[in-house]
Specification:
Pfam family, one: ECH_1
Number of helices: 11
CATH topology: 2-enoyl-CoA Hydratase, Chain A, domain 1
Main location: other
Subcellular location: Peroxisome
Shape: globular
CATH architecture: Alpha-Beta Complex
Distance between the termini: 24 Å
Strand content: 5-15%
Largest sheet: 6 strands, mixed
Keywords: Isomerase, Peroxisome
Helix content: 40-55%
CATH class: Alpha Beta
GO molecular function: delta(3)-delta(2)-enoyl-CoA isomerase activity
Structural class: alpha/beta
Strand order of the largest sheet: 1-2-3-4-6-9
Length: 249
């Protein structure tokens, strides 16, 4: 079975990360699959909205660390860069459902969604600095806009996680509910019933103020991220992480 499931429900495309045994950690092939599905949805007039969700108890543990270390992203053509470009430029409404852990890109991809639903079990974290890296997906620009400079600095510089209630207070999450998947699908169908061109144009207007600025920040983040990956700090942090994970296994 595919690690990314694609299901069409009326005019809604539901994309599910499907590696529950690995907390839906995302591999290069999964990034490519997500990008392909998003591009097809962008080009398909019948698809009016997309939902991103995870199978099992967790949204995603972020990058699959072993896959990531084996072949780290090296430029704008890497699978992860293509995925980030896809969600940043996706013209139709993106919704997400988060339960359990949303680590790294599992949190930062949400900044590009129109509406995010979460269960009370959701826990968000962006431990880039802890891994010797820097923020990505435009998060260094978007997150301070949401929560203020000092709160963003505290979370980025410590790697501290935050709860679903915190995420709602920050404005990252719209709804916290035990039936988050059902509510997200109902909302997606409500949006899908609206005049589609009006929906697309309204999303474009909502993003117009900051879209190009975020694109520019994402480019700088990507360059610094690639440099950080080659550093001794990152290698030591990755080795510590993989050693701890192996002991846990």
């Amino acid at each position: 079975m595919s690690d990314v499931l694609a299901r069409i429900d009326g005019s809604v495309l539901v994309l599910t990360l499907n590696r529950p045994a690995k907390m839906n950690a995302i591999t290069r092939s999964m990034y490519l699959g997500l990008s392909r599905h998003l591009q097809e949805a962008a080009d398909d007039f019948a698809i009016r909205a997309v939902i991103l969700q995870g199978e099992g108890d967790h949204f995603t543990a972020g990058n699959d660390i072993y896959d990531f270390v084996e072949e780290p992203p090296t430029g704008p053509d890497s699978p992860v860069s293509k995925f980030l470009e896809s969600i940043h430029n996706f013209p139709k409404p993106l919704l997400a459902v988060v339960s359990g852990n949303a680590v790294g890109i599992g949190t930062t991809m949400l900044f590009h969604c129109e509406i995010v639903f979460a269960t009370s079990t959701a826990k968000f974290s962006m431990p880039f600095v802890s891994l010797g890296l820097v923020p990505e997906a435009g998060s260094s620009y978007i997150f301070p806009q949401l929560v203020g400079y000092q709160e963003a600095a505290r979370i980025f510089l410590t790697g501290d996680s935050f709860s679903a209630d915190d995420a709602k207070r920050y404005g990252l999450v719209s709804v916290v509910a035990d039936d988050a998947k059902e509510q997200a699908l109902a909302m997606a169908h409500r949006i899908a019933m609206q005049p589609p061109t009006s929906v697309i144009n309204t999303k474009a207007l909502l993003k117009a103020r900051s879209h190009e600025a975020i694109s520019a920040v994402m480019l700088v983040e990507s360059e610094l991220f690639m440099l950080a990956l080659q550093s001794d700090e990152a290698m030591a942090a990755f080795m510590k992480f993989t050693s701890r994970s192996s002991q846990g296994d």
